[in-house]
Amino acid sequence: MRVRGFVAVGLALVVGAGAMSGCTASSGGVGPRGGGCVPRLTVVPATAHPGEIVTVSSKDVCRDRVPDAGWEVSVTQPIEDGRRVSVRNSDRFDGSWSVPITLPRDFPAGETAVGIDNWDYSFCDDTGSCAAVSGVLQVEAAPTPTPTP
């Protein structure tokens, strides 16, 4: 009986996680404005140093319209007046979407939020049930060069 309980709990967690993902099968990736799918973002590497390039990507397929100026993808320190760097990308979420972002050499160390700043949440109600198009990146201080003897 105990094993069945663990299996049932595990299955409930898997089903629940699938239902909470941005691009569920029931949504079909289409919302009221031709969008409504919220892609899950991956940031590689998950830890980077100032001056390095990170790649933000998504394997989800979402049929949201690309804004005229493209998606604004940013890396932001989640503090008041935190440092921010962004790029534009006009590609659709076709399962192979990705964009490189170069961190400035003077970008401060710390945890950052990675996201699409101009994502359309107009199809969301005010209950807080919509997922954000976001990820996390840890920025570590640039390594100190060791002097050569």
What does this structure look like?
The chain has 149 residues and is α+β, with helices and mostly antiparallel strands. The protein is 13% helix and 31% strand. The chain has a single domain, classed as Immunoglobulins (Immunoglobulin-like, Sandwich). A five-stranded mixed sheet has the order 2-10-9-5-6, with no helix packed on it. It is elongated, with a radius of gyration of 19 Å.
Question: End-to-end span in angstroms?
Answer: 67 Å
CATH-derived topology: Immunoglobulin-like
Helix content: 10-25%
Order of helices and strands: HEEEEEEEEEE
Structural class designation:
alpha+beta
CATH superfamily: Immunoglobulins
What is the approximate shape?
A: elongated
| Model regions low in confidence, pLDDT < 50 over at least 5 residues | 1-35
What top-tier CATH class fits best?
Mainly Beta
Whole-number mean pLDDT: 76
Tally of separate helices = 1
* Strand numbers in spatial order across the main sheet: 2-10-9-5-6
How would you sum up the major sheet? 5 strands, mixed
Radius of gyration over all CA atoms, rounded: 19 Å
The number of distinct β-strands equals 10
Estimate the strand proportion: 25-35%
CATH architecture: Sandwich
Count the domains.
Answer: 1
Label this structure with key terms.
single chain, 149 residues, alpha+beta, Immunoglobulin-like, 5-stranded mixed beta sheet, 3-stranded antiparallel beta sheet, 10 strands, 31% strand, elongated, disordered N terminus
